[in-house]
Amino acid sequence: MKLAYRIVTPIIAVASVVLGIFLKMFYFTVGNADETIGNLINAIASLTDKVSTTFEYSIYDLLKLISTAQPKTGDDVKTFSEVAAPIIPHLWAFFIIFVIVLLVVLAIGVVSTLSDSRKKRYTVIGLSVGALVLLFVDILISNGAFAKITSGEINLTDLVSAISDSSIAALATAILTVTSASLSAGFYSVFGLLILIILWTILSNMLIATPIQKTKTYKRKKPMKKIMVKTKK
Fold first, then answer.
1. Residue 168's pLDDT is what?
2. Exposure string for 48-75, b = 16+ CB within 10 A, e = fewer
3. Spans of the chain below 50 pLDDT
4. At what angle do helices 2-22 and 88-112 cross, to 10 degrees?
5. Which of 65, 201, 213, 232 has the fewest CB atoms inside 10 Å of its own CB, making it the most exposed?
6. What digits encode the pLDDT tens for the residues 45-54?
7. C-alpha dihedral sign at 61, 127, 191, 144
8. Chain-centre distance of CA 73, in angstroms?
9. In degrees, to the nearest 5, what angle opens at C-alpha 43 toward C-alphas 37 and 45?
10. Rounded-to-integer distance, Cα 76 and Cα 74, Å
11. Angle at Cα 98 formed by Cα 138 and Cα 113, nearest 5°?
12. Nearest to 28 by CA among 150, 173, 163
């Protein structure tokens, strides 16, 4: 069991880091407050795969999008930082905390490979609980940012113009707003795997303390009958 713990725990830790970076992290739905226009947009989206009202991005997707974007030029075009100014503090706080969580998860993987001891396993549980607390803080931060996005504090047209040179895309966003935003699978996969590490560690503690052993059954041997030999006098 000790060997299994030292193998399985680092695998779970590494998997949570990979999923946190590459799995979809943010989920957005766009539409229009006007019911007629909203229904029209949904109808068009259902007829063609070129139009979508839902968008999901992983951390990797966002970094790639921002780094490869070709912004439009002109005096009236705002930069990404200017457009996203209302949520920039939220973004920085969210990503800094999430990076710390990923580093903690990597530390869990390293600690779990050390020589076995009860103290090591308690350390893994403590680190996991600390990472979960940080993820709860990230949920609160993201809710604040999402509230500002859905309330219209960020202009969708200006945002598209800041990261894309497509005038058609910018024109399309003129009638659209972000109607809902939430965290997606990438975030909750890290959350779930941390809980799994805690449960796995508790189970390992129990099995190491009281290992499962095969019970042996003993059958009572029948006493041998005494053989009486009669002798002639």
1. 44
2. eeeeebeeebbbebeeeeeeeeeebeee
3. 166-169, 171
4. 160
5. 232
6. 555 555 566 7
7. negative
8. 37
9. 105
10. 6
11. 130
12. 150
How far apart (Å, rounded) are the C-alpha atoms in residues 57 and 183?
Answer: 10
DSSP the chain: -HHHHHHHHHHHHHHHHHHHHHSEEEEEEEE-SSHHHHHHHHHHHHH-TT--SEEEEEHHHHHHHHHH--PPPSTTPPPHHHHTGGGHHHHHHHHHHHHHHHHHHHHHHHHHTSSP-HHHHHHHHHHHHHHHHHHHHHHHHHHHHHHHHHTT-S-HHHHHHHH---HHHHHHGGG-EEEEEEE-HHHHHHHHHHHHHHHHHHHHHHHHHS---PPP--PPPPPPPPPP-----
Residues 68 and 157 sit within 8 Å (Cβ to Cβ): no
CA angle 170, 155, 56 (to 5 degrees): 75
Nearest CA to 198 out of 1, 13, 47 is that of 13
d(CA 30, CA 41): 9
Tokens of 180: 């809902």
Token readout for 44 is: 């068009």
Q: Please check whether residue 163 is in contact with residue 69, taking contact to mean a CB–CB distance below 8 angstroms.
A: yes
d(CA 198, CA 11) in angstroms, rounded, equals 14
